[in-house]
Amino acid sequence: MFLGWWRVLRHEVGFINVVSRWMNKLMEIGEILERHKPLPLNENLRAYATEMRKNLTEEEKKIWYGYLRHLKPNFHRQRIIGNYIVDFYCPKLNLIIEIDGWQHEVLNKEYDDKRTEYIENLGFSVLRIDNEDVNYDYNYVIFKIR
Predict the structure, then answer these.
(1) Would you state the pLDDT for residue 28?
(2) Pairing of strands 125-130, 95-100
(3) Distances (CA, A) of 59 to 67, 114, 132
(4) Is-above-0.85 flag for pTM?
């Protein structure tokens, strides 16, 4: 009689271990899906983003070809997020890098603040770099990105 209960108990414990392992796997999958959920995307911006990708500013070229292009984890350029196009995007780091000219400080300050708030609410960090820094203090910019 004792042996019969032992077999039942061993079977139940084994079953519980299997269920526990499956639950852990499902939680891992859920975490992965949460990290890699699709970005909000405005399809109307696709052609413009492609055009921007082909026509980078001199500062964006310098950062892209000089550093980000070969950096791991990978960066994407001119990526659509919601109704905005960001300069550089790293999905693994949840990092957005924006290269800004003088007009962002003077003309587009409110727009940039609204855009940054939207992007940060999606869980991204936004690193803003001035064109002047790229042109005159490139090593500082690389240090800032690292």
Answers:
(1) 74
(2) parallel
(3) 12, 23, 9
(4) no
Integer Cα distance of 5 and 20 in angstroms:
22
pLDDT of residue 68: 92
Which of 93, 99, 97, 89 lies closest to 40, judged by CA?
A: 89
Q: Is 78 left (phi over 0), alpha (psi -120 to 50) or beta?
A: left
Strands (E), the chain: 76-81, 84-90, 95-100, 125-130
Cα–Cα distance between 131 and 56 in angstroms, integer? 13
Query: Cα(83)–Cα(18) distance, rounded to whole angstroms?
Result: 45
Rg (CA), the chain: 24
Q: What is the pLDDT of residues 44-94, one digit of tens each?
A: 999 999 999 999 999 999 999 999 999 999 999 999 999 999 999 998 889
Q: Which residues pair with 11 in a beta bridge?
A: none
Both tokens of residue 87?
A: 């300069």
Tokens of 41: 């995307």
Residue written as token pair 């000219």: 101
